[in-house]
Design brief:
Number of strands: 8
Number of helices: 8
Strand order of the largest sheet: 2-1-5-6-7-8
Oligomer: single chain
Shape: globular
Helix content: 25-40%
Structural class: alpha/beta
Distance between the termini: 15 Å
Length: 276
């Protein structure tokens, strides 16, 4: 199983290698991992500047046109270096992958025969951009837009508060334990018809992502709201949802690491079975 690994906002492939190392170490040599940096260099988060000297982001600036440029960049990379069985994204890189999938589906509906560049996707603390949904003519409420802005600001303030990289890569020291400001109930999933401002029952059937997906999200993560919206945008018969019960980071506790590795094994088995 060959997987393209995409880091989060303002980090790097080097950081994602470290973050994903625990679950990757549980998987054998049949699992291959290709890490790449985002297309745009940027300053590292304020709390990590002392230990991270290179950082990259996936979009040049906010907005759907910038996302479209990044989709073209990612598609070109995969055309050159692919194909891949899977793409694994952390946080903001999910936005580009989701946009690629949604725009590809629209092109297919308009007669394109170009195949998808990967067969499955794993989203860790995944992120969904309302601007892409709007660009595709899907219904997006003001509540959904306001929620998106609020949770992104909350994550930024948390990351800026980090005193060193070890706290994010090894064992967060209570960084995400204060859930008093969260916009969601950590113990309850929303209804399809009212998912933080999005009504998925009103979306056309062909607007949903149809490849197998795995969604690993944290109930203490402010972006839980966007992660669940992303999961609901995927075919319920082909998606797996898993709450690692943490914050906006890649979990490293033994039980969760084992579960993450197991999710990759099961996804690999699913892909092999569908190809048989």
């Amino acid at each position: 199983m060959r997987t393209l690994m995409l880091h989060g906002h303002s980090t790097s492939s080097f950081i994602f290698k470290a973050q994903s190392g625990p679950f990757r170490s549980k998987l054998g040599s049949s699992f291959q991992w290709e890490f790449i940096d985002g297309p745009y260099s940027c300053p590292p988060p304020r709390g990590l500047k002392m230990v991270m000297w290179k950082a990259y982001k996936w979009m040049e600036k906010p907005g759907v046109e910038s996302i479209k440029k990044s989709v073209v960049w990612l598609q070109n990379y995969i055309d050159k270096h692919g194909p891949f069985d899977c793409v694994c994204c952390f946080s903001k890189s999910s936005s580009v992958v989701v946009a690629l999938l949604l725009y590809h589906a629209r092109e297919v509906a308009n007669g394109s025969t170009k195949p998808l560049p990967f067969k499955s996707a794993v989203f860790i603390n995944g992120n969904l951009e309302c601007s892409v949904l709007e660009d595709l003519g899907l219904p997006v409420t003001q509540e959904a837009k306001d929620t998106e802005k609020k949770v992104e600001d909350m994550v930024k303030s948390k990351v800026d508060a980090m005193s060193n990289l070890a706290s994010s890569l090894v064992k967060p020291q209570g960084l995400w334990d204060d859930t008093s400001q969260l916009l969601h109930d950590p113990d309850e999933l929303p209804e399809l018809s009212d998912c933080f401002g999005l009504d998925f029952t009103s979306f056309p059937p062909d607007s949903f992502i149809s490849i197998p997906t795995v969604h690993m999200y944290g109930s203490k993560d402010p972006i839980f709201t966007s992660s669940i919206q992303l999961a609901y945008l995927c075919d319920p018969n082909k998606r797996v949802m898993y709450d690692h019960q943490g914050g906006h980071d890649v979990p490293r506790t033994p039980d969760v690491v084992a579960d993450m590795a197991s999710a990759f094994r099961k996804l690999d088995q699913k892909l092999k079975a569908s190809a048989a």
